[in-house]
Hints:
It is a single chain. The chain is an alpha/beta fold. 25% of the residues lie in helices and 22% in strands. It has helices spanning 8-19, 41-48, 74-85, 123-129, 148-154, and strands spanning 3-5, 24-27, 34-38, 57-60, 90-94, 107-108, 111-115, 131-136, 160-163, 179-181. Strands 1, 2, 3, 4, 5, 6, 7, 8, 9 and 10 form a ten-stranded mixed sheet that branches. The N and C termini lie far apart (47 Å). The relative contact order is 0.28.
Amino acid sequence: MTIVRADVAGLRRAGRVLGAAMPVIMPLPVPLPYVVASLDAAVVNVVKGRPADQPVGVAVADFSLVTPHVRLDADTLALARWLTADQLLNLLLPVADSCPAWMRPSISRGWLGITMACHHLTRTLLDRSGHLYVSSANRTGHPVALTAPAASAAFGDTLLVIDGDPERDPSAASGSATLVRVGPG
């Protein structure tokens, strides 16, 4: 497809693509990489070259979307929120037996994979949907994309890429996200 600026026109275009449950490549704040995002978890997996039903992470606009479904005491829940919202860590959180359908693609063996990491340029896209399924912008087994051109090239220039490079410090160490399991106690 193409690389679009993170301006009103580019974000509208990305919103239309996401609204059709298609994938969009979005920047995350440094030190995190670019991600493939979609309203359909299977789409994220398929474009990465993995089984459609493989669990995939979910970015949430508001931590309160998951709190009713997470089995953590209040103090540990507050820690989990701080780790993902302020420290930009991806988390595995224990979930209750019943949870909303949108969470199920992000659950593996009773653990929900979530993040709240979102670049301020693309925040409106996450806020609009409440959640987006996400995974690093690379084909499985290949290096993660740290720039818009690298993200585009990783998928054969077939996906819409929101360019966050003007706001990313190329000298800052970036790479894969850290994943932390947060359990009771």
